[in-house]
Amino acid sequence: MEVEVFLGRVLHVIDPDNFWMHIGTNDHFAEFLQFEVNLEDFCRLSGNYIDDINEIYAGQFVLVDCTDNGGTWKRGQVSRVDSIQKCADVVYIDYGSTELVEESRLCANVPDEYLQFPFQALCCKLAGIQPIARSWTSRAVKMFQDMTVNQVFHTILLPSGPGWFKVVLYRQDGDERSIAHEMLAQELALVS
């Protein structure tokens, strides 16, 4: 049985048991890049911001203006609305991260074509290791973040539960050691 190897980019890390990735092929990544360009064009031309934070609700899909920080528009889902502070907690469905967003950056009018494109952030767990204590040490989390965030890996998916993926990550430079093995070598994890 041949193992299928994908490309995977780590986007957002909480710890090695809880992080988000884009997983796919070069064509898949190119398709998402084009989707983001189209989304950016739509948002730039529409300028359709909300006028009142009470126009949105928890669970609603929104578009968020992230251009002030050199970013682009992003798709998100509202997890909580704070009417007093005039902001909303938003989960970025293509990146896995969250942000408290002011109402002046929110667009609630999301055309169906931008919701039909599959959400890109996949919740993952690094296969083969476990914390050396009850939970991951801050040193282990920092090392994992430094080794992985915004890096592209050869990625193998292993059987896992619904809503998340167990992954094995190998660098693209030909090094045969997985990220899990690097964590073990640094004495930051135990074999699971």
Model description:
- The protein is an alpha+beta fold and 192 residues long.
- The chain has two domains: 5-30 and 119-191, OB fold (Dihydrolipoamide Acetyltransferase, E2P) (Beta Barrel), CATH 2.40.50; 55-116, SH3 type barrels, CATH 2.30.30.140.
- 23% of the residues lie in helices and 36% in strands.
- It contains four helices and twelve strands.
- The protein has helices spanning 26-46, 112-116, 138-148, 179-185; strands at residues 5-15, 18-24, 61-65, 73-82, 87-92, 98-102, 106-107, 122-126, 129-130, 152-158, 165-171, 190-191.
- The strands form three sheets. It has a five-stranded mixed β-barrel with strand order 1-2-8-11-10. The protein has a five-stranded antiparallel sheet with strand order 6-5-4-3-7.
- A hairpin with a 7-residue loop joins β3 (61-65) and β4 (73-82).
- It starts with a strand and ends with a strand.
- The model has no long low-confidence stretch (mean pLDDT 94).
- Residues 55-116 form the Tudor domain.
- Pfam families: TUDOR.
